[in-house]
Amino acid sequence: DMASIQELGPPGLVVAWVDTTILIITFTALGTYLFKFTWKESIVVVGATCICGSSAATAIATAVGVPTDGELVRDILALMGVFNTPLIPSMPYMQGRVSDRVVGAWIGGTIDSTGQVIASAAIDGGEVLTTATIVKMAQNLLIIPVSIVLTSICSYSSTPKPWSGAIDVPATESEFQELRPPSKRTWLTALVDMLTVVAAKFPRFVLGFIIT
C-alpha cells in the first residue's frame, strides 16, 4: 500500500518511477530511430521490459493497437523469460557487498515479472524481500498512467479535429453541385469523441491495478 511505499522513501520512488520513466523514453527513442522499429513496436518492447513483463506488454499493445497475440508480443515475452530466469538465482549474491535495501531495490527494479522478483528476493528474505516487493509493486503502478497517455495519444491522432472537414476537389461539374458544406465541429464534440475512443481502447484489466 501507499504507507509501505512512503516507508521506503524517495530513493525507492526514484528507482520505481523516475528511473523507469527515463528508461522508457530513452529506449523507445533508440528503438525507433536507431533500430528502425515503429514507435508503437518500440514502446511495447520497452514498456514490457521496464515495467512488469506480460501485463505491461498486453496493456501497452492494446493501447497503441498492436495485436496482443501477434509475433512481436510473443517474441518479447519469450525473450524476457530467457534473460530474466538466470537473474533469479544470481542477483541475491550481491547481499553482503551492498546494503540489503540496495539489493532489494536492484532486484525489484531490474527483473521484469513480479513473480520472478519475489522468487529472487526470497532467497535472501528479510529486508531484501520487502524492498524488492515494494519497488516492484510501485513500478507496476506505472502501467496506469502509461496506458492512459498512450491510449489518449492514439485516440487523438485518429479522431477528427474541429478544423477537419477538407474535401477532395470535384472532378466534374455535377460532383461540384452535389457537394454540401461539412458540418462544423467544436472542441467539445472533438473532446467527447476522443474520450469515447479512449474508453473503447483502454485495456480494461488495468482497472484492476487501480482498484487494488
Features:
212 residues; mainly alpha; 0% strand
What is the overall shape? globular
Number of helices: 13
Structure class: mainly alpha
Strand content: under 5%
Helical coverage, percent range:
over 70%
**Main beta sheet:** none
Roughly how many Å is the radius of gyration? 22 Å
Count of DSSP strands: 0
Indicate the low-confidence ranges by residue numbers: 159-173, 175-182
Order of helices and strands: HHHHHHHHHHHHH
Describe the protein's architecture and organization:
- The longest helix is centred in the first third of the chain and has 24 residues, at 10-33.
- By secondary structure, the chain is an all-alpha fold.
- Helix content is 73%, strand content 0%.
- It starts with a helix and ends with a helix.
- Residues 159-173 and 175-182 have low confidence and may be disordered.
- It is globular.
- The protein has 13 helices and no strands.
